[in-house]
Protein: AmmeMemoRadiSam system protein B
Amino acid sequence: MKRILLIFIAVALVLLIAFIKIFSKQPKNNPPTLINNNQKTMPAQSQIKIIRNPAVAGQFYPADKNELSQMIDEFLSAANPPAIVGQPQILIVPHAGYVFSAGTAAYAFKTLKNFLYDTVIILGSSHNYPVDGLALYNGDAVATPLGEAETNKKMIDNLTPMTLKFSNPLQTRSSLKLLRAL
Structure:
């Protein structure tokens, strides 16, 4: 009987330790907060100023403003897209490290050189956790080595009430930065 009790206690301890280990791990990145009509939330326009710092500057593209500017100028100079008819409404570009994707992105962006846009919406994939639906960054600006790009807070607040909004400037989100710098 003692042997069965000892085996039972040993198994219970192993299960307890496994349970504690599994459920005490902190996630690498906190998932975005779900915001909907049932929650009391502060509109993005009235929040404390949040500026998203570059996540991959110096890794996927140069962190130095002058070096990055020169690199972009070189890619844009090398791009020779054909003339297009009408103002593009959608542009799809890659967002990998510049050594892999900047030539293609510059080719696409150069087609826009004769057009002006009041608002640009950048959609990027989530590399850190699954998102079902749309995730919005509701900070005030996104910083790049070339400067800050302000967000359209009013547009963000007017979008659907059932969206995921990023307010943590420490969360990694690289596709937005890679495209903004171009």
Summary: The chain has five helices and six strands. The chain has one domain: 29-181. The chain has a mean pLDDT of 75.
